[in-house]
């Protein structure tokens, strides 16, 4: 696998290198993390979940809907509406609007875009809201129309969803890097331990190694506890200037750096890395930090193999060393390398596109000393990553942000 990666890198040697330096996010902050508690199934529409989150934002901030002059929306099940239709539903009149259909990457992409809009003066207060519903049959319907690839080349042949694709990715990673199911189990068990103190986590029972290993197979080598549970829920936050957050008496986090990449490494025959590997140096240099400097990490965790890839691609260990890295840490909030401190999607649930904001909202709570569960001791900085849009055989979108508590 490592040899294939090097060969693909040589093929991409003609890539244009940027010769400019990105602007910092100085003066722009994220505040007011909101979660609308998850439900396994819901008869409410995505509009209801988005509206609940929006109402929570304005109520807790002491604002009126008219005070929100920016609005970013992420949702798979809000159709046929988009962000513009929602402005009429919710009585908004924003001067900056975005609809971000990037799945697990949507949260950080919304943060990036909203921060630049505020920095440029295009908006003063941006509400970033992500939500989806989950009716009894809505998940199957979403899978069948998720993409043109899904409609034409996957679903008609009896393969619904990402399980089959990630089974191939997982098996290839295990063969190339020596990962064992026990390594994936360690991540899932640690996240379940972290989730036990989270009120809205759907998984409320401690997970043991025996339970993980004996769980029914879904798509070999993926078994039950390697998969997220689809559910309904919402996540939201505000992006504004630091002085605005202070005037509203809202605790906030600073944005040190972000990166975003789509369709990275298309020549890799099987996905072994994401776009983080292209932008990791810029991510850390822009933040002025090294991987060892962050106090906790929130990765996107639709499957544990993607967690290992992110640990490698984001610089916490070398490529192919993910299994050894996992074996050497506890990943619990009060242990070594606190990771997915609310339990992640594997234990909280995956509320559609809201899953891309789960780690971001949790990171904000930890950094502002407002955790719903077990706090990470003396948390000052963290990394949050996103990953989304499985399109036939791989995830296309990857992103990351480094955040810090108020100075």
Folded structure, characterized:
Mean pLDDT is 93; it is low at 10-14. The chain has 407 residues and is an alpha/beta fold. The chain is 37% helix and 19% strand. The protein has a domain at 28-137 and 230-247: Peroxisomal Thiolase, Chain A, domain 1, CATH 3.40.47.10. The protein contains 15 helices and eleven strands. It starts with a helix and ends with a strand.
The assigned CATH architecture of the domain at 28-137 and 230-247 is 3-Layer(aba) Sandwich
List unreliable stretches of 5+ residues.
Answer: 10-14
What pattern of helices and strands is seen along the backbone?
A: HEHEHEHEHHHHHEEEHEHEHHHHEE
Strand content: 15-25%
Please outline the major beta sheet: 9 strands, mixed
CATH topology of the domain at 28-137 and 230-247: Peroxisomal Thiolase, Chain A, domain 1
Helix share of residues?
25-40%
- Give the strand line-up of the largest sheet: 3-2-4-7-1-8-11-10-9
Q: What structural class do helix, strand and pairing data support? A: alpha/beta
Tell me the total number of β-strands: 11
CATH superfamily of the domain at 28-137 and 230-247: Thiolase/Chalcone synthase
Helical segment count? 15
Oligomeric state of this protein: single chain
CATH class designation of the domain at 28-137 and 230-247: Alpha Beta
Give the rounded overall mean pLDDT: 93
